Each structure stands twice: as C-alpha cells, then as structure tokens.
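Standup, Tuesday
Yesterday: got the pipeline producing structure tokens again.
Today: sanity-check two examples.
Blockers: none.

Example 1:
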Amino acid sequence: MRKNTLTAALVAIVPLLFATSAAADVKVFGGGHFQGSGKGVAEAFSKASGIAATYTPGNTGGAALPRRLKAGEQMDVIIMTSDDMDGQVKDGVIKAGTAVSFARDGMGIAVLKGAPKPDVSTKEKLRAALLAAKAVGIQDPDPAHHSGVIVHQILSDLGVLDEVTKKAVIITDASSALVAGKVDFSIWSLPELMTQAKLEVAGPVPAELGGYTVESVGILSSAQNVSEAQAFIKFISSNEGRAAWTKTGLVPLSKTGD
C-alpha cells in the first residue's frame, strides 16, 4: 500500500515539475537602438530553444532602468549600450560577470516612402544633402538622449552644426515628422529606421564619421529566470542569434574591426 501511495505521489508531482519548467518565461528588455531588433530576436530565441520569451521595448538608459524596476517591472535580461551596462553593473543592478558586448550600430538617414532619397554615400555628399535640405529631423542633443549627442557630434564634424540647427526639427520618434511633412529627411538609429514601413532608408551615415553604439546584454540581479536568461545570452552571441539581429542593421563586433 505504501509503495502504491509513493508511486501515485510521484505520478502527480512529475507533471507539475515539467509544467513549472515549461511555464518559465524569460523577460527580455531593451531600449535605444535595439528596439528595432528586440521582437524578432526574442521570437527566434523561443523557436530555437523552446523557452518562452517576451520582449518589452522602452527607455532603459541612465536612471530609467532603476526607476522602472522600482515601479515593479520584472526583468530577467536586458540589452543596452555598453556604457550604460557598465554603469548598471557598477551599481549592482546587473549581475556582475554576466554582461557581454555583442554588436554595434550606427545612425541612418530616412525619407518618407516614395520621396526622393538624398545621396549620403560619402561624407561630402551627406554634408551637401544637409545643407540643401529645408528641414532636418534630429533628436535633442541632451546627454540623456544618446543618439542626439551622436548626431550633434556628426554635424559638428561635418562643419554644418550651426546651419542644420537653425532648420532642425527636434524629433522623438523615427517617423512622425516625416509622415507629417515637417522634414525632408531624418537622422535616426539605423536598426529602428529599417523597421519603419512608412519610411525608406537613404543610407547609413558614412562609416568615416563614426557615431557607433556598442550593444551589450546582461542579466538583472533581480532576475527570476536566471538559467533561461543565460540561455538567451548564449543564443544572442551564436550564429543563429546573429542572423536574427543583423537583419535590422546591427553589426557583429568581429566584423567592425573592434
């Protein structure tokens, strides 16, 4: 009788253990330039690993991440700029030893779909296009807006900062100003531009002007699904993971000379 009772208990418990494992849902967060890649990478990871993953975009830079965590958002793994990642590791928000830099990306120039595309293939041609435009969409160069700082530096290096600033429209997303006809073209994160159905990419900012952002992935100290988060980091650095995020303009570090 006792043996039968033990057997029955095991039969009841084992499915519960598998159900608990299957219910694990790794929560992936990522803001900034990764927002154009996040959903596709999470889906590719789930398909390859069998582990459910949900991706949530939004600002995670600087003080935004601790603020979101304090508000009760649960995160397991996060993608952000390497500079932000270093700061969050130092503050103990990201688990030490888990952060991995895996890609970099740059800025791009986009127009409304069907509109003439400026030639921005060289430093000189980009400069000419900026001077010829009636209005250009750029982000606020406040230090809190990482891309805005990058664009400010690019314009300065081209020697057109003052001219472009006078006709600049400060934008807070990739497409609204273009759709509304407020600007001739906008400068925005290339990976995000590539996901905009209403826009066409004229080209990336020429490589010689730099403006690259290194992306890192790390596990939250408060993560509830650590092993699944570790599997995600392994995936994002694999050939299969790389295939998922290179589609949206991210570039492997090994291919950039870093």
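Example 2:
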Amino acid sequence: MTHTTIEEPVLLLSDTDADREAPTEVEPDSPPRPRRKRAGSDQFGQKQRKAREGALQVLFEVDLVGHDVEDVRTRQFDQMLLADGFRDYAERLVDGVLTHRDDVDALIAATAPAWPIAQLPRVDLNILRLALCELLYNTDVPVGAVINEAVELAKRYGSENSGKFINGTLGTVASRIMAGALTRGAG
C-alpha cells in the first residue's frame, strides 16, 4: 500500500445538509477516526430539531411581520406535519419565548452590548431568544445540546457569521450558569 504525502491538512465535510457541521481538520498522516455520533443525530433528535425550526419560523414571522401568533403557529406546524409530541414541544418553545421575551431580551442586551437588540438580524435575535429560553427555563435539554442546536439553526438560516455570534453569546450565558450567576429552571 502506497501512502501519499499531503502538504495541507485535509478537511472532511459532512455528506448532507441535515448532518451539516463545521469542517474538521485531520493531520495528514493520522489514521482515519471513526465518526462520533453527534448529539441530536438520532431520529428523536432530528424531530426535536424540526420542532425548533418550526418554533423559529413562527417567532421570526410574528416578530418581523406582526402576524397573529396563533394563526402563524397553526399554519407552520400543520405544514411541517410535526408529530404530536414534537408539536407540543415546538408550542412550548414558542410560548416560552413569548412569556419570557422581555427578560431574555434584557439578557441578550447585557451579554452582547455591542449589538443593540434593534440592530440584530431578526433571525439571530429569534435563535437567541429560543435558545436562551431552553437554557434558562427548560432543564430537560443539556446546555451543550442547546448551544449546538442554536448554532446549527444559525448556520442554516442566518448569515455567514451568525453561528459564531450565537455560539459566543450562548457560551457567555452558559459560563454564567456554570458560575452560579444565572439559574436554570427559574421561570
């Protein structure tokens, strides 16, 4: 067997958009590593991701256009054909953001002071609202999973730098949770 010498690191890309993640650098002479199973890569995780996408679409439309939340929710979730348990999850996410919106927006403003709420892209703002509600008010989902899912939403729906911004902002909030400055489940 002949080995080829490669001067630059090789980048491995995922095969599908549904499993999209950042490229991974591999040392040229290192043996291939088995792919680790990512959080959320199973069927349950995919349906939960779909519920988050549905919640994001509802929040975005309501925030941007001002349509009635119940009309938007019914239309979006019917179009997505969410299974009952995941439809309930998506509805809880939307309700959580609507209930805690002022507190979450204040946290965003405090965590990312260089980006006033009014100047944030609506997609990024609603991804942050969604993720922060999951972080602070839904302790069923691990902190890392919430951040990963939010970054994936940002990569899919946001701008080129949205993922980095979302990751940095949520990472700061997660650090405050771990330090005890913020409490999960306080709502």
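Quick observation on example 2: Residues 105 and 134 are 14 Å apart (CA to CA). Residues 43-178 form a domain with the N-utilizing Substance Protein B Homolog; Chain A fold (CATH 1.10.940.10).
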